[in-house]
Amino acid sequence: MLRLDGLRIDLGSFVLQADTAFEAGRITALMGASGSGKSTLLNAIAGFQAPTSGKVQIDGTDITDLTPGDRPLSILFQDQNLFPHLTLADNVGLGLRSNLRLTRDESAARDGALGRVGLSGLGGRLPRDLSGGQQSRAALARALLRRRPWLLLDEPFSALGPALRAEMLDLVAETAMSEGLSVLMVTHDPADARRIADMTAVVADGKVAKPQPTAALFENPTAALRSYLG
Amino acid sequence: MPLLAVGWRGLAEATTGLRPADWAALRFTLGQAAVSAAISVALAIPVARALARRHFPGRGAIVLLLGAPFILPVIVAVLGLVAVFGRGGVVNDALGALGIEAVSIYGPHGVVLAHVFFNMPLATRLILQGWATIPGERMRLAASLSFGPAETFRLLEWPMLRAVVPGIFTVIFLICTTSFAVALALGGGPRATTVELAIYQAFRFDFDLSRAALLGALQLALGALAALAALRLSLPSGFGAGLDRVAQRWDSASPGLRIQDALAILAACLFLLLPMGLILAEGARHVVDLPGAVWAAAARSLVLALTAAVATVALALAMAHAVTGQKGGWVEVAGTLSIAASPLVLGTGLYILLLPVANPVALALPVTAFVNVVLALPFALRALIPAMRDLQADYGQLSASLGLTGLTWLRLVALPRLRRPAGFAAGLTAALAAGDLGVIALFAAPDQATLPLVLYQLMGAYRMEEAKAAALVLVALSLGLFWLFERGGRHAAT
Fold first, then answer.
1. Which residues of chain A are within 8 Å of residue B422 when distances are taken between CB atoms?
2. Given pLDDT bands bounded at 50, 70 and 90, which one contains residue B446?
3. Nearest residue, CB atoms, B401 vs list A69, A99, A128
4. Tell me, what's the pLDDT at B37?
5. Which residues does chain A have within 8 Å of residue B397's beta carbon, measured at their own beta carbons?
């Protein structure tokens, strides 16, 4: 369970408040217009944005004061998910050991993860030699290796075409299921949420609504969701 | 710390007052700096203008050539100027053939000449950057309104010049006030002694530490004043991009203007290349005859340059990291403050500090390395701080989310991503340190001389052939180190 306990974030005149919880073992979508604060919320959970007040708890442990690298979560950003000067293998290997001194078993695990996301044999390439979809897969492979219970997605696939994006979302759903990951994903596209999210929480007017089962929510939209969908 | 020591000691001695000779040194320092800066800028404007509006093969090479004097060892350039303008030089031979009496290069005008040699190219590059800031659309508009060259100058170029020239003048003035090696080689005597040279003389000949400190405090005040003035003016960013851009323009196609521009560029190239060409060509013939002592000095200079380069880059990386983190601006201030410090003032300060605990002469080389690190730091910071900011903006969150910190972060992220600016900073430091003739002249015993000092001694003994050969070695060392580091950084960058 990821609990936001009276969380308040102030960014200049913008205020975001959240007092809710996201269930473990599920995929939850945070949906809202651009500028609604959904990425800000993700940044606060990941530790890049200090909240003005309130707490972030994962499985009952307060993580509000932990550094980003120490939190029980991995995050995929919109861009800059890979270091351009490191090979794919090194970029993925960072998920096991941040100093890249891998044992033989760890190297094997790394290659296994590359295989899981369909990048077998591409470990020696630099990111610039790969397509956008392949770069996303590599970032996902690294998140798998980190073995943190939560995976946060800040629209990492938004630069991909529709077919490729759907493919990546399915890959996320599949791996989340098989690895037992809990996923929190930011999206502005209802189709993304309907495709893989069990639950959806709407972010609007500086507030994070309680997550609802996605199918039911879209069948019977709240006022906030209705005004967003237009 | 060394600056404080000089200031303290200088104040303590202030009661004894400045002698007339000291006032003369101050007057000369200010006067020659003003004249040097004025001539440099005045000559640079037509050259920059010519380069700004002409596109021709070899233009890039000329812009590169204009950057070379910055890393050229001062003493080598002085030797080259003597070969051209000195007694028995090319110019005097020509004058002699016309029946005109030979002019000497030694004295105030020689000092100014050398300063113009170094700073006219710098001014040209900086003014050229100013020209590059005039948008091409503005030129197109001017053409559609059928502006001639005069209108273009009055309405577009003159406002630009008025904005950039005061800053450039101040920078060059500042550089010229801390001149030591030029004054040492070409000046001297009551008419052409700078404050820096007076410090050296008080130190070396009179061994009057109090007077050296007093003069040092004077130099420090001078540098601080000039630095303050420089801060208030808008300064161009130095080694900038955009020098290869030529805005297309329609006002300057007339043959007269073409010839004028060609002459300006040609004259500038001749002025820069002739001194270098003469000594390097002659030096090449004598380089095999160089005595072992010169090679030993070259080895010392190499070690010195590498030490200074590594230390500067390490320090600059740490400082840039602190600046871009939350720890704030004082580091940046400390880094730029050292612009106001001159090598001789730092040297004097270190001497005063070291005297109670050790024999400063035995530490000549470490002290020289230290001073060179301090002097190169502002340039290194200027290269590394923006790069570090970009690195944090692009990969700061990714590094944090993966728990990359400390040495691992340095090894896997910072060093590979910052290779290019770091290589540039290391190359610049190495070239400047290899060619530096400053503090080493204060301290060094004969067995510790660096290559520039040996070169100066050879010149003083009128062993010109050996001096030219040593100059060749020094140029190869200094430019070679710059090239290697810079190339290394650029090559690895992805």
1. none
2. confident
3. A69
4. 93
5. 48, 68, 77, 80
Residues B402 and B312 in one domain: yes
Indicate whether A22 pLDDT > 90: yes
Overall number of domains in chain B: 2
pLDDT (tens digit per residue) in A133-173: 899 999 999 998 988 999 999 998 988 888 989 999 999 99
| Between B340 and A47, residue with greater pLDDT | A47
Regarding whether B201 and B141 lie in a shared domain, the answer is yes
Q: Domain check: are B179 and B317 in the same one?
A: no
Residues B129 and B277 in one domain: yes
**CATH number (domain holding residue B341):** 1.10.3720.10
Helix-helix angle B343-354:B2-13, to 10 degrees = 80
B12 and B133 housed in the same domain: yes
| B chain contacts of residue A84, beta-carbon cutoff 8 Å | 494
Residue entry with tokens 């408040």: A17
Of B285, B314, B340, the residue that ends a domain is B285
Q: Do B416 and A98 touch (CB under 8 A)?
A: no
Q: What is the mean pLDDT of residues B71-96?
A: 82
Is residue B274 located within the same domain as residue B377?
Answer: no
Nearest to A53 by CA among A10, A1, A3: A10
Residue B230 is predicted with a pLDDT of: 62
Mean pLDDT of A52-79: 91
The C-alpha atoms of residue B126 and residue B48 are separated, in whole angstroms, by 9
CB contact under 8 A, B398 and A83: yes
- The predicted-structure confidence for B295-349, as pLDDT tens digits, reads as follows 888 999 999 999 999 999 999 888 888 877 655 556 656 655 555 667 788 888 8
Which residues of B make CB contacts under 8 Å with A? 394-395, 397-398, 400-405, 408, 411-413, 416-417, 494
Is the pLDDT at A114 greater than 90? The verdict is yes
In chain A, where the domains are located: 86-147
CB pairs under 8 A between A and B: 59
User: What ipTM was assigned to the predicted interfaces of this complex?
Assistant: 0.75
Domain that holds residue B327: 290-494
DSSP A117-165: TT-TT-TTS-GGGS-HHHHHHHHHHHHHHHT-SEEEEESTTTTS-HHHH
Same domain, B255 and B328: no
Locate B340 and state its tokens: 């106001």
Preferred mutation among B326, B392, B394, B397 to probe A, highest tally of A CBs within 10 A: B397
Contact A77 B397 (CB under 8 A): yes
For residues B82 and B74, the answer to whether their CB atoms sit within 8 Å is no
What's the sign of the alpha-carbon dihedral B403, B407, B411, B415? Answer: positive
Identify the CA nearest to B451 among candidates B280, B308, B307, B298.
Answer: B298
Residues B263 and B335 in one domain: no
CB pair distance less than 8 Å for B417 and A46 = no
Sole residue written with tokens 């707490």? A55
Q: Identify the domain boundary among B240, B267, B285.
A: B285
Closest by CA to B196, choosing from B441, B478, B14, is: B441
Secondary structure letter of residue B206 according to DSSP: S
- What b/e readout covers B30-63, taking b as 16+ CB neighbours within 10 angstroms? bebbbbbbebbbebbbbbbbbbbbbeeeebeebb
